[in-house]
C-alpha cells in the first residue's frame, strides 16, 4: 500500500527543495491536504507568477519586476559606486544597513573550479561593460569571506586593474565580530584583524 | 528597498508551511527563482491537483483518489477488524509492517480540550456507523502514546462498550523499545513495561 499518486508526486517535489528531507516533504504535503483549496491555489499561482514576473535587471542583474530595478533607476543613488555581491539576497542585506547609496552588481555565484563554475558562468560580462560605459570611481567587493568568494574578488580586481587603473577597488574588512571573544576567534580571522588594525582616534 | 512584490508573496506563503521559518522561506523562494520554469509549473500543478483529486474514503476517511480507498475495497482484507489511527500517515506506517490485514479508520486528530477539539470534531460518527452496520470482532486502538491519544482511545473504547459489549477492543502495547537501555527508559514506560510483562516461552 502506498499513498495515492497525486500525494506521492507532491511529496517528491517538496523533497527536491533545499533542506527538505523525505519526512518533512511528507509533512508539508499533508499540510497542503489539510489546508483549504484556496491556500493551495494561491501557493500554485505565486509559484508560476514569480517565474513570469521576475527578470534580471538589465544593468545590475538583480531580480526585478521591471527591466531596470528600482535601485539602478533611482536618480538619487550614487552612480559612481558599484558593490559586487554573490546573490540578490546580499543586496537586501546591505540595503538594510542604510549606509550605502551606490549601485550593485549581482554575480549569481562565485568562481568554484571544483563545481565546474568558471568566471564565464557568472554575471561578469555586463559588469565590465558597465565599467567601460560609465564613470565608476569605486568598486566594493562584497563576496562572502570564503575561499571561493575571495578568489572571485581577486579575479575581478585583477581584471579591472588591468584595463583601468583609475578605479578604486575595496573589499569588506575582515576582523573580529563585534561582541566576540578573542579566545574564541579563529586564528585566520584574528591574524587579519591584527594586521588590519586601525588607529584609535 | 525590499524584494519585488511577487517574491515577497511567495516567501510569505512558504513561511506559512510547518517548520519553515522566514530564513528558510527566503531560501526556498530563491530556489524556485533559480530553477526552471517547468519546475515551478509542475510544482504549482501538483498543488492544485492534489486538492482536486484527493478525497476522503467514504468508509474509513483515509485520503484516496477513489470514493472508496484501495484498502476498504480490497476483497482480501479482513473486514472484521478495524485499526483506529490519528492520521493517514499512520495507516502507511502500519501497512509497512506487513503484519495486519484488517481495515482502518482515520480520526483526523485526537480529543484535545486545550485546543478546543472535542469528539464531535473527529471522524467518529462514521466509525460508530460502521460498527452498527457490519460485523466487527476487534477494534485496535493505535492512537499515539500521548495523553491526548490515550484519552481518545479511552473515549472510543467506552462508547463502543456501552453499545456493544461483544467487540474486543485492544490497544498497541506500551513497553521498552527494542534495543533501548533500561537505565535510560523513562519510569512511566518502564512501569507499564513491567506491569505488562509477558511469559517467556
Determine the structural class of chain A based on helices, strands and strand pairing: alpha/beta
CATH architecture of the largest domain in chain A: 3-Layer(aba) Sandwich
Unreliable runs of chain A, pLDDT <50, ≥5 residues? none
User: Quick one: how many beta strands of chain A?
Assistant: 6
Strand order of the largest sheet of chain A: 4-3-5-6
Based on Cα principal axes, name the global outline of chain A: globular
Terminal-residue CA separation of chain A:
74 Å
Write down the CATH topology of the largest domain in chain A. Dna Topoisomerase Vi A Subunit, Chain: A, domain 2
What characterizes the major β-sheet of chain A?
A: 4 strands, parallel
Rg of chain A is: 22 Å
Largest interface: chains, residues each = A-B, 51 and 51 residues
Q: Give the overall pLDDT of chain A as a whole number.
A: 92
In oligomeric terms, what are we looking at?
Answer: homodimer
SSE order of chain A, as H and E? HHHEEEHEHEHEH
Amino acid at each position: 500500500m502506498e499513498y495515492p499518486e497525486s500525494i506521492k508526486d507532491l511529496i517528491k517535489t517538496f523533497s527536491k527543495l533545499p533542506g527538505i528531507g523525505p519526512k518533512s516533504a511528507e509533512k508539508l504535503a499533508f499540510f497542503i491536504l489539510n489546508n483549504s483549496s484556496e491556500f493551495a491555489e494561491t501557493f500554485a499561482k505565486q509559484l508560476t507568477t514569480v517565474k513570469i514576473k521576475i527578470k534580471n535587471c538589465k544593468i545590475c542583474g538583480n531580480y526585478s519586476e521591471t527591466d531596470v530595478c528600482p535601485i539602478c533607476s533611482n536618480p538619487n543613488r550614487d552612480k559612481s559606486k558599484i558593490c559586487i555581491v554573490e546573490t540578490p539576497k546580499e543586496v537586501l542585506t546591505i540595503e538594510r544597513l542604510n549606509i550605502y547609496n551606490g549601485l550593485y552588481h549581482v554575480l549569481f555565484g562565485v568562481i568554484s573550479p571544483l563545481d565546474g563554475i568558471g568566471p564565464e558562468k557568472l554575471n561578469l560580462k555586463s559588469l565590465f561593460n558597465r565599467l567601460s560605459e560609465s564613470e565608476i570611481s569605486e568598486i566594493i567587493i562584497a563576496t562572502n569571506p570564503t575561499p571561493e568568494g575571495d578568489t572571485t574578488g581577486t579575479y575581478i580586481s585583477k581584471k579591472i586593474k588591468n584595463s583601468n587603473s583609475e578605479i578604486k577597488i575595496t573589499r569588506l574588512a575582515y576582523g573580529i565580530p563585534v561582541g566576540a571573544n578573542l579566545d574564541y576567534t579563529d586564528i585566520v580571522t584574528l591574524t587579519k584583524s591584527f594586521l588590519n588594525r586601525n588607529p584609535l582616534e
